[in-house]
Amino acid sequence: MTDQAASLRAAGAGVSPLLRPRRRVVAVTGGKGGVGKSTIAVNLAAAWARRGARVCAVDGDAGMADLNLLLGVAPSHSLADLLAGVPIEEILVAAHGVHLLPALNGSFALANLDDLARSRLWAALGTLAPRFDSLVIDTAAGIGAGTMGLAGAAADIVVVARAEPLSLADAYACIKVLAQRERVRQVFVLANDVRSPSDADEVYGRLRVLVARFLGIDLVALPPVPRDPAIADAAAAGEPVVTQRPDSPAARAIHAVARALDALAAPAVAVGPLAGFVRGDES
User: Fold this and answer.
1) Reported CATH class of domain 2-8+21-282
2) pLDDT in tens, 157-207
């Protein structure tokens, strides 16, 4: 693993504007539910928006919507309407500087899209390319074909994990499927809800050993996000922590993650339905 975290942890959290916003598609995943990937996704989106980028957050957990709650909005339309033919501009909802493409909580149909419907959804996501600098996709938990296919279509993939055996096992399973099924060659790893630097080291160290031994792909460690009650407070208020509590430890860490992704993402063309975005390219 390319361990950039040690040098990046100490970076300041000042919000500096992006002179030329990067165009990117970032998928946030993690294998296990409950590791905080939705919180990371929505706050990454808000962090880039605060720096002047045009950002769309996509709730890729199609049948178990979370991002609307974290952004404090009650959308009148969802991905179900998009698949029914409603124009995408009528579905997007703006909140806290971010445009949201919402899912629909409790939708069995959205959670079990067939190949044709999934292809239509991905084609619709591709139409967002001219409108935004960045797409941040919050995937569903698990390693199902839809979840892994959506993550694998993104230029950059962030796998969120906690320093817990089950979380680490599921994070490795997620990385394994991405490497073997989606032919992904690089994954960013984010240690979330860490209580100490040793928690982050455990996440990065254990995954590094397993991936180097069995998969041989490149893992890039992102700055860890600490355990911080401000995250739960912001979620309860329906606002990203980076806007509600910008000086909190978690907000500062998420800004460091956003800057690290800007610095560490290698130039590479995204493939598939999201080919309109180029990792590391500047608009």
Assistant:
1) alpha beta
2) 999 999 999 999 999 999 999 999 999 999 999 999 999 999 999 999 999
